[in-house]
Amino acid sequence: MKIDVHTGGYFQTNGYLITHPGGRLLIDAPEGVADWLESLGLAPDGLLLTHLHYDHVIDAAAVRERFGCPIWAHSPPDANLTLETLLKETIGWPFELDPFSVDRVLAGEREIHLAGLIIPLDHVPGHSPDSLCYRPRPADSADELPVPLLFGGDVLFRGGIGRTDFPHGNHGLLLEGIREKLFRLPDATRVFPGHGPETTIGRERASNPFLQEF
Description:
Elements: E1 2-8, E2 13-20, E3 23-27, H1 33-40, E4 46-48, H2 54-57, H3 60-67, E5 71-73, H4 84-90, E6 104-105, E7 111-114, E8 117-123, E9 132-134, E10 137-138, E11 149-153, E12 156-157, E13 160-161, H5 171-182, E14 190-193, E15 199-200, H6 201-207
Parallel strand pairs: 3-4, 4-5, 5-6, 11-14
Antiparallel strand pairs: 1-2, 2-3, 7-8, 8-9, 8-10, 12-13, 14-15
């Protein structure tokens, strides 16, 4: 599988394009990702959202309009989940999110098939109540990938974790989810976060300052 990253917007949010013989999957839709895809001449077969905070979905409507691909996420769009309400009422940010719909709501699901991939899901709330982590592998292979992949949104970063001071944030719940769901994965698992560089489960287990108590 080939993994390309587009980083865009004020908060330098990562969007990932997974390309393999069975299809193409876009994970998250930061600002500018639709233009980036067009510049590459690549159309995704699906858009999978890690959570609905605005910096991860700002181009979701544009991706749908230009490429016609389905959008899947834990929850339907909501002004509280996207943080539109917070931005307007607390800091006066002149923000308008182009409306989009979610074709398949993934709350309660444990595994999905999309764009030729089998994707186990890990629901890890705490940064946002709808945060999902994805572990894709090709559906046409019965074997696991030599090195597992984890697309974690804003749950786990290199040397950090997602902030929990937004509405619905819960620091303890986030740490518990990382410990019980992500730290059970092999140390070699590559972690592709919503911001910043790639890391591994082993690296974060050993040295992440927020998680040394575990």
